[in-house]
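Thread amino acids onto this structure.
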């Protein structure tokens, strides 16, 4: 699995691709780590799951720990662009109560930071 990141103003966007199983969860955890540090400048994380076709309980745990850390800092976390299988996993596990689920990365960024949305739009949305 791959998970490159990009910062837009005060939001870190992590773009996951592949399966978030045991190995993939470690990659995702590493990608999110800079934004979870106590002195991180990010006020929100958006995880783009458009390229993810499966997420295991280990992957959900990474998102749960990230959500708990961000809430403690009064910061936000959202996921975006869930594929049907991943959306079903989120629904069955009721994970949509743990993280904000949005239809697109742009919607997720806009929900957490106007400054980041402006930077995202200026960049061409990629």
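Threaded sequence (126 positions):
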């Amino acid at each position: 699995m791959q998970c490159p990141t990009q910062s837009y103003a005060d939001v870190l966007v992590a773009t996951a691709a592949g399966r978030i199983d045991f190995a993939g969860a470690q990659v995702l955890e590493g990608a999110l780590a800079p934004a979870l540090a106590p002195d991180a400048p990010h006020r929100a994380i958006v995880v783009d799951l458009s390229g993810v076709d499966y997420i295991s309980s280990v992957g959900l745990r990474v998102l749960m720990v990230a959500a708990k850390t961000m809430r403690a800092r009064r910061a936000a976390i959202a996921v975006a662009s869930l594929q049907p299988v991943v959306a079903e996993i989120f629904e069955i596990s009721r994970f949509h109560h743990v993280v904000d689920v949005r239809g697109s990365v742009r919607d997720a960024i806009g929900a957490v930071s106007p400054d980041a949305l402006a930077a995202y739009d200026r960049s061409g949305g990629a």
